[in-house]
Amino acid sequence: MPVSEVILELEMKRESKSFTDSLYAILTGAGLFSGPKYMLSALSGMASIFSVHERLLPFCVSAYGEWGTVHKRAADNLGIFTVTDAGRTRHPTFKSYQQDAVEWIKASLDRGLAAVYWLPEFGVIHGYDDADRIFYVQDGFSSESRIVLYDNFGINSTPFWYAQIFGGKVDIPVKDMTLEALRMALDDWETPYSVPPDRKIASGRMAYSYYISALERGDFDARGAVYILDSFRVSRNEIMLFLQDTAILFPGLNEAVKCYEQLVCNFGAPDRWVDAESRGRALSSHVVPALVDILKEAERLEEHAMRIFKKISGQYPDLNRSTVPRWGLHSAR
After folding, report:
1. What SS3 class is residue 274?
2. Fewest C-beta in 10 Å: which of 66, 209, 212, 220?
3. What is the pTM of this model?
């Protein structure tokens, strides 16, 4: 008899980037990852991502390039098989892809594996009920599940939809995963624009310039400034903890640990930058000069850490970046 309802018991908590939180809930729930979230965040390359809108609009935290490419890279370094699909809801084929996605997500849930889903931001589809034609979705903000009708799958306040499922796992040595994580951090650092040709959002090293310039101009979204800063602080703390755990694997990595320890320490408590009289979390105008100085120092510290990563990377072969795929770099899809 066909299964008509499945509910997987897992818990997504919003603590990091929403994709990281979703991925961690799914993989730990299925026994495909063990360890703290900061380790998954760093090994997947998600922790190193830093994207900033020129006016510090909050949506830029999730605007870090083509999700399919970035999120596949994340799963690849963890040794996890993954499949994604996404598109624009305005496309005439959307309904066909929508109903197809409903079926393969249900099949994944039948196998005990939840799915990543764009709400926005990212959440976890952890169950379905065919009788009511609904999915159960966790957004990480509440213990209560949200309901998404099959017929409304993919329809949200943005013009696009996204879903991702996972499969089996191969074991990759921790040293190899760590080395690739350092290289992914370098890639992100040296990529100024992750969503070209749009240059309103900067990445990596350039993201610092955008954040600092917005503060110095005084033309920025005060709530977005804090939201981006909160995400940044969490990710740099994740990198620090990750490097503390893995520094023993590579001579010289301890120096990078010190860079991130100093960076995290400099920012202090999260509420240091928040206007206590504002509704919600908004940046206080009084702290802007101090924050500019700390961001400039943070950029210097990360630049030094990246030089260390680059030196370590150069001591080992890098087949991912030195081997041209058999179909070439820009094959038709």
Report:
1. strand
2. 66
3. 0.94
In the chain, beta strands by DSSP E = 5-7, 51-53, 80-88, 115-118, 122-129, 134-138, 146-149, 160-169, 201-203
Give the position of tokens 């072969």.
317
The tokens for 290 are 């101090």
- HSE (side-chain half, CA atoms, 13 Å) at 142: 6
278 or 172, greater pLDDT: 172
**What number of CA atoms fall less than 13 Å from residue 8's CA on the CB side?**
28
Q: pLDDT tens digits for 249-293?
A: 999 999 999 999 999 999 999 899 999 888 889 999 999 999 999
The runs of H, that is alpha helices, within 59-203 are 67-77, 94-110, 174-189
**Which two tokens mark 121?**
């931001």
Q: What is the pLDDT of residues 11-63, one digit of tens each?
A: 999 999 999 999 999 999 999 999 999 999 999 999 999 999 999 999 999 99
Separation CA 178–CA 35 (nearest Å): 14
Instruction: List the structure tokens of 107.
Output: 């099949």
Q: Assess contact for 264 and 237: CB atoms under 8 A.
A: yes
- Contact between 184 and 321 under an 8 Å Cβ cutoff? The reply is no
Residues 184, 189, 195, 201: is their CA dihedral positive or negative?
positive
Q: Which two tokens stand for residue 239?
A: 């990198």
Provide the H-helix boundaries in 111-198.
Answer: 174-189
Phi, psi of 88 (to 5 degrees): -100, 135
- DSSP letter string, 3-50: --EEE-------SS-HHHHHHHHHHHHTTS--S-HHHHHHHTT-TT--
Phi and psi at 203, nearest 5°, equal -130, 165
The whole-angstrom separation of Cα 304 and Cα 256 is 8
For β-strands 115-118 and 5-7, DSSP reports them as unpaired
Q: By C-alpha distance, which of 139, 135, 147, 137 is closest to 102?
A: 135
